[in-house]
Amino acid sequence: MQATSTSSVSGLHGSSVRGRGLVSGRAGPVRVQCTLQEARPSVNGVPVSVPKGAVPNRPILEVPDWENQYRRLTARTTQPTPASLSRLRLFSGTSNPTLASEVAHYLGMELGKIKCKRFADGEIYVQVQESIRGCDVFLIQPTCPPVNDHLMELLITIDACRRASARSITAVIPYYGYARADRKVQGRESIAAKLTANLITEAGADRVLAIDLHSGQCVGYFDIPVDHVYGETVILDYLASKRIATGDLVVVSPDVGGVARARAFAKKLNDAPLAIVDKRRSAHNVSEVMNLIGDVRGKVAVLVDDMIDTAGTITNAAKVLAKEGAREVYACATHAVFSPPAVERLSSGVFQEVIVTNTIPVAPENIFPQLTILSVANLLGETIWRVYNAASVQALRD
């Protein structure tokens, strides 16, 4: 049984209301065409579905197109959050603010506001001066000399960000201090590289981004993800601009431990030949060159290492190369630690050029004519952007 009826509804203040299940309005009488249907649980003995909320054998009021009208009335009126309001936040410690500023410039953003000061007794105070709740924070802080102060500052800053409810914290460590203490050479020694990794993890870091760790095993010391990028990309681009003939070039490892690094470097230089300097270390920061494996006579020798500390190893290797007939000697390293007497050794005339990066700030008194400093800001900035957007970091090296 079906019946069609017309109902009249007056305004909210009107007195005339006829019909059942009427729709009211403010603008005056509204006429609604309704259809009354009798809900039946079965037809000819075949069960049929009953609309949700309906009672069998009771008429149902159906307003045509009511679902679409309801959706239009309850449609979302707020606009989506602009892409510029990103959750990415970039902060810098006090060890290398110049590099951090260059990275921020590459990313097209400003460094976050942070307050760091030291009390009279040497204790460090850190306060993040903006809201980072729910943000992905990247802290740029190489643990360069003074290593202990900068490491402690990094730990305190990580803790401050964690307590400020950051969603994730990535410790960007261009230079990882204590990396050389990565194994036990003698009994009763500490593996400080592992201890440092534990401290960074326990402080609250969720990820570490480092450049040219002293050894690959340092990556395994962390119980959190580590993105290990290589500064050789920047140095290779610079060497390519010098247009040294492929046949005149030979890549040299200053010690046996750096053979894998030198081989990867030589492969990027059109698979240049490789030479190895065999050295024996009698004490810490003291080395003695024994012999040379490979031919360097009449060639341009490129010494490759991850860091230059006192420059004893690389200087002794350069002297042997010159003695064996190398035409020119270039020194390439990512980290310029430059502990005394590194500057005196490097500027003694054995090197045609010393090429380093700015993972560690070079003091003005350590600048000498043969020194060239390349920036890794673009490399770091691109890596940070890829980590933030969950893109491949390995593709930067491929």
Keywords:
nucleotide-binding; 10 helices; 5-stranded parallel β-sheet; magnesium ion binding; 3 domains; Rossmann fold; 398 residues; alpha/beta; nucleotide biosynthesis; Rib-P_diPkinase_bac
Task: Give a written overview of the molecule.
This protein is of the alpha/beta class and 398 residues long. The chain folds into three domains: 2-73, no CATH class; 88-231 and 380-396, Rossmann fold (3-Layer(aba) Sandwich); 233-375, Rossmann fold (3-Layer(aba) Sandwich), CATH 3.40.50.2020. 25% of the residues lie in helices and 28% in strands. It is built from ten helices and 19 strands. The strands form five sheets. It has a seven-stranded mixed sheet with strand order 15-14-13-16-17-18-19, sandwiched between helices. Strand 10, helix 4 and strand 11 (207-211) form a beta-alpha-beta unit. The longest helix has 17 residues, at 147-163. The radius of gyration is 35 Å and the shape is globular. InterPro entries: Pribosyltran_N, PRTase-like, PRTase_dom, Rib-P_diPkinase, Rib-P_diPkinase_bac. Belongs to the ribose-phosphate pyrophosphokinase family. GO terms for molecular function: ATP binding; kinase activity; magnesium ion binding; ribose phosphate diphosphokinase activity. Its EC number is 2.7.6.1. Keywords: ATP-binding, Kinase, Magnesium, Metal-binding, Nucleotide biosynthesis, Nucleotide-binding, Transferase.
